[in-house]
Amino acid sequence: MDQIFRLDNQIAVVLGGAGGIGEAIATGLGQFGAKVIVASRNQKTITQVAKKIAKQTRTQTASFQVDVTDEKSMENLVKSAVDQFGTVDILVNAMGVNIKCDALEYPMEDWDRIFDVNVKGTMIACKHFGRVMKSRGQGKIINLSSVRGIRGDGQGNSAYCGTKGAVELITKALAVELAPHKIRVNAIGPALIITPGTIHIKQNPESAEKYRSIIPLGKLGVPEDLIGACVFLASKASSFVTGQTIYVDGGLTAS
Ligand SMILES: NC(=O)c1ccc[n+]([C@@H]2O[C@H](COP(=O)([O-])OP(=O)(O)OC[C@H]3O[C@@H](n4cnc5c(N)ncnc54)[C@H](OP(=O)(O)O)[C@@H]3O)[C@@H](O)[C@H]2O)c1
Fold it and tell me: For residue 80, what is the domain's CATH number?
């Protein structure tokens, strides 16, 4: 029973694995014993992160390039992962983009770009890694949603909220459709997490206080806050859990 969170001999792919959240999740999965593939577009950063994780966790890692909006590129990633590791047990869709703009001014090319990465990219990844998992008769998919998947916030996030709402319902739809293949599909919905991309919020006392004041636990999140939920959803500990979003949000969505 004390091993239910262990991921030894599991193969995990983290898309966006060199991002602020993706790196923490990839490291956490490695710490719990998984072999970790870090993937995104920038070969230099994914190589650095994969090496760092291997050194820190003593697990086997690899880095492969992928553009999640390009189905052919995803097929190549799946092939590289299976060629090198034999299979894939865990997929984490930790890529994502946001382009903020007032709703009434929103440029539709930005709308398309954000939906391409956050929604289409998630679906392409689930489709192609889902096939590998189906062939094995088991798998775990974890999508990154956001508290903005269930809340509007009036801060120029209409497109982003739309993408995360879509990710939440895709998570439920795939959970039901893939359940006969013993593939579990869940999501994690963080509140603001301080990463290199959001550090400016923490550095500005006024905006830091604005975010902190709406979080019941009274603090801003850090990427490591997401490791527990991800390891839970990737491990046997959650074997009867599918189609759910765990909000790692300091109580924001409860208030
Ligand atoms: N940080 C937060 O406050 C927060 C809160 C709630 C939810 N989230 C969600 O959590 C996830 C991770 O966020 P983050 O803060 O870690 O973001 P981040 O630091 O900006 O990382 C995003 C990653 O996505 C990758 N990416 C972007 N476009 C891609 C594409 N076309 N193909 C492949 N990879 C692509 C980027 O790598 P390359 O540039 O190398 O491709 C990057 O590593 C996102 O889904 C985000 O919406 C974040």
Answer: 3.40.50.720
Dump pLDDT digits (tens) for 84-104.
999 999 999 999 999 999 999
Pocket lined around ligand 1, Cβ cut-off 6 Å = 15-16, 18-22, 40-42, 45, 66-69, 94-97, 117, 121, 144, 146, 190, 192-193, 195, 197-198
> Would 1 be classed as within a structural domain?
no
Is the residue at 3 inside a domain? no
Which residue, chain included where needed, has tokens 């954000």? Answer: 114
Interior angle at CA 179, CA 173 and CA 180, nearest 5: 130
- Ligand 1 centroid distance, CA of 52 (Å): 19
pLDDT at 48: 98
Is the entire prediction scored with pTM above 0.90? yes
Closest CA relative to residue 197, chosen from 160, 229, 233: 160
Nearest alpha carbon, ligand 1 atom 7: 146
Q: Which atom of ligand 1 is nearest to the CA of 117?
A: 31
Residue 109 inside a domain? The answer is yes
How many domains does the chain fold into? 1
- Let me know if residue 2 belongs to a domain: no
Residue 148 pLDDT class (50, 70, 90 cuts) = very high
Check whether 188 has a pLDDT greater than 90: yes
Please give the residue range of the domain that contains residue 219: 11-254
**Closest to 139 in 3D by CA, of 240, 245, 234, 68:** 234
Pairing of strands 35-40, 183-190: unpaired
